[in-house]
Amino acid sequence: MIAVVVGLGGAIALWTYDLGRSFTFGPKVNVEQVQLLEKQVEQLTTERNALAASANTVESQQNIERSTQKQLGDQVKTLTVENLKLKDDLAFFESLMPSATGQEGITIQRIKVEMVAPNQLRYRVLVMQGGKGNRDFGGEMQLTLNMVQAGKPAMMQFPDPKSGETGKLKLLFRHYQRLEGLISLPEGATVKTVQAKVMDKGQQRAQQSVSL
User: Fold this and answer.
1) pTM of the model
2) Which of 59, 156, 199, 209 could link 145 by a cystine bridge, Cβ 3.0 to 4.6 Å?
3) What is the distance between the alpha carbons of residues 206 and 202, in angstroms, rounded to a whole number?
């Protein structure tokens, strides 16, 4: 009798537990429904990732296009500045072109020097031959740099006289010739003036100086 009562009580308790769980948590979920929900979640996750990747790709393309447009704009500005500079140089040269009625002889029409680095000097020299210019002129250019180094005056010849014939700034023209280049300066030197000379077989034909 005790065993029957205990068993009956346990059965009633178990039935009561299941009934309370059904009321509390609702009906039991089907396994197939769980699997279906998992597949839907996985599909939505995949679609979300694909859309995010597409958005990143579009943004990257837009960034590349903006960068390309900026580079093209910068190139246009640079070319415009260079074009204006070339037009100015052309007008300058045309105004200096020798004529048959001009003064004969060799002249240094223009000399320009500027520092482009702490120890580098850029020079530009325009040499012309006036008059009819029936013959070619052959000679060489010499530059003399007056400097201050370590608080003392100093002088430098360019090209170096020791360089020989191969190192000379050769001149060979009928109407005009333009020379330009870079000069490496000694450490700590400051250039004050630059003097340009046109030499012909050891004889000076023209001279001009410029200060920095």
Assistant:
1) 0.54
2) 156
3) 12
Give the N- to C-terminal CA distance of the chain in Å, as an integer.
Answer: 125
Evaluate whether 198 touches 108 at the Cβ level (below 8 Å).
yes
Q: pLDDT (tens digit, 9 = 90+) per residue, 35-59?
A: 777 788 888 888 888 888 888 887 7
List Cα–Cα distances, 202 to 83, 111, 141, 163, 197, in angstroms. Answer: 40, 21, 11, 16, 11
3-state secondary structure of 143: strand
Alpha-carbon distance of 205 to 30, in angstroms, equals 109
**Residue 90: other Cβ atoms inside 10 A:** 10
Handedness of CA 86, 87, 93, 97 (dihedral sign): positive
State the DSSP code for 30: P
Cα 6 to its chain centre, rounded Å, is: 93
For residue 64, give the 3-state DSSP assignment. Answer: helix
